[in-house]
TrEMBL record:
Keywords: Cell membrane, Membrane, NAD, Quinone, Translocase, Transmembrane, Transmembrane helix, Ubiquinone. Its main location: membrane. It comes from Micromonospora acroterricola. The keyword Transmembrane applies. It catalyses: a quinone + NADH + 5 H(+)(in) = a quinol + NAD(+) + 4 H(+)(out). This is NADH-quinone oxidoreductase subunit H. InterPro entries: NADH_UbQ_OxRdtase_su1/FPO, NADH_UbQ_OxRdtase_su1_CS. Its EC number is 7.1.1.-.
Length: 450
């Protein structure tokens, strides 16, 4: 007998049957979700970082400062729009628009919930789905970088150009690792449809532990822990978030690709960054955290995965991932460019290739579809990966003493105080004494001695 929650899973056959007004309503809902999540995301980041840095954050405009982001948007709308003389006017205008459109388009194939009834129509809480929906997500993620690259090139300035070049190299480096991470999801789920991947993470299998049957965790974040870790690191790099915000590094590029932008165009770039952060959090939830499915122990309730309740679990997971994005920004310093590229090509890519090779070999073993065996391999491999990433690359050298630091400095580089902390006599006092008592100075005696 099919469980009740499996009956709520949409299939590809359930799409394309909705009336036009329902499809339009879903599109408006997805766009409103991205826009509203961005407005609240800016406020959320300021409040969380303020809490981490022991300061209040926005708390004046509206209750708890909720309207501060709206006030900032109005301020940007009325600021002067400056166009550099050397800019390519057409590309300069459309570059921020490309970034926003690509970030919002990815939400069209993200499932927000199961099959529900809307005004008598049984429809999935998803705009659309196709057999290669995950490839559409990768395409939107890749195309979004074009807005940054074109914006930096069209500004006609050095700093934006360098930021655009960094963004292109960043996209190439981390898009490869992201794509390889999703390969493990394809192999396990057997489909590229987002609704199918969510359904595959809740097939209701059970494990037997100490003679007691318990529901097996079906989330790919547990079964494919190495892929989940690498995918999330790659999403941070794809969204240009700290510590991978090298295209807009203030320390060496002023503001990177956004240096010459102002007013609403600057606001669109900020909007695209936060929309991309929310979108990638939703994609990570769909591919690795069970999508709209309720986490344990909420699953004990039979109606947890039916009706409109799954939207609550989906939004909760997205907010948790956005918190991790903010946590990283408030905790980690920005990487150097050479460290960033080395990490992508020499660490994430080889580990991902080895993990896919191991997973392919294990899946060829008979009865490999057992969730127990996947957990027995995926969790230790993920722990080993995390330990490898955070293991110190070289042995720490002992801290040199103060005298060793002084001896290592070149002579005459800058004045140094005496090491015995004895202040030498003032040159003015020495000169006065020499003028008054030249004989005593010459003989080495001091008239002040009693």
């Amino acid at each position: 007998m099919t469980p009740s929650y499996l009956a709520q899973d949409p299939t590809l056959a359930d799409f394309g049957r909705d009336p036009w007004w329902l499809v339009l309503g879903k599109i408006v809902f997805a766009f409103a979700f991205g826009l509203l999540a961005t407005l609240l995301g800016v406020w959320f980041e300021r409040r969380v970082v303020g809490y981490m840095q022991v300061r209040p954050g926005p708390n004046q405009v509206g209750p708890f400062g909720l309207l501060q982001t709206l006030a900032d948007g109005l301020k940007m709308a009325f600021k002067e729009d400056i166009l550099p003389k050397a800019a390519d006017k057409v590309v300069y205008f459309f570059a921020p628009t490309i970034s926003v459109i690509c970030a919002v388009t990815a939400l069209s194939v993200v499932p927000f919930g199961p099959m529900v009834s809307i005004f008598g129509h049984h429809t999935p809480l998803q705009v659309t789905d196709v057999p290669v929906a995950v490839l559409l997500l990768l395409a939107c993620s890749s195309m979004g970088v074009y807005g940054i690259v074109l914006g930096g090139w069209a500004s006609g300035s050095t700093y934006p150009l360098l930021g655009g070049l960094r963004s292109s190299a960043q996209m190439i480096s981390y898009e490869v690792a992201m794509g390889l991470s999703i390969v493990a999801v394809f192999m396990t789920a057997g489909t590229m449809s987002t609704s199918g991947i969510v359904a595959a993470q809740g097939d209701g299998t059970q494990l037997t532990i100490f003679g007691q049957p318990i529901p097996a965790p079906g989330w790919y974040a547990i079964l494919l822990l190495p892929s989940f870790v690498i995918f999330f690191i790659s999403t941070v790099g794809e969204t240009n978030r700290a510590p991978f915000d090298l295209p807009e590094a203030e320390s060496e590029l002023v503001a990177g690709f956004m240096t010459e932008y102002s007013s609403l165009k600057f606001a669109l770039f900020m909007l695209s960054e936060y929309v991309a952060m929310v979108t990638m959090s939703a994609v990570t939830t769909t591919l690795f955290l069970g999508g709209w499915r309720a986490p344990w122990p909420i699953t004990i309730w039979e109606g947890a995965n039916s009706g409109w309740w799954p939207m609550l679990w989906f939004f909760g997971k997205v907010i948790a991932l956005v918190f991790v994005f903010v946590w990283l920004r408030g905790t980690l310093p920005r990487l150097r460019y050479d460290q960033f590229m080395r990490f992508g090509w020499k660490v994430l890519l080889p580990i991902n290739l080895v993990w896919i090779l191991v997973l392919s070999g294990l899946r060829s073993i008979e009865d490999w579809d057992s969730r127990g065996k996947m957990i027995a391999v995926g969790i230790p491999a993920g722990i080993l990966l995390i330990a490898t990433l955070f293991w110190p690359s070289r042995r720490r050298q002992p801290k040199p003493t103060t005298q060793e630091q002084v001896d290592s400095r070149p002579y005459g580089s800058f004045p140094l105080p005496p090491m015995d902390l004895q202040v030498p006599p003032s040159p003015r006092i020495t000169r006065v004494v020499a003028e008054r008592e030249p004989a005593n100075i010459a003989t080495g005696s001091d008239s002040r001695e009693v």
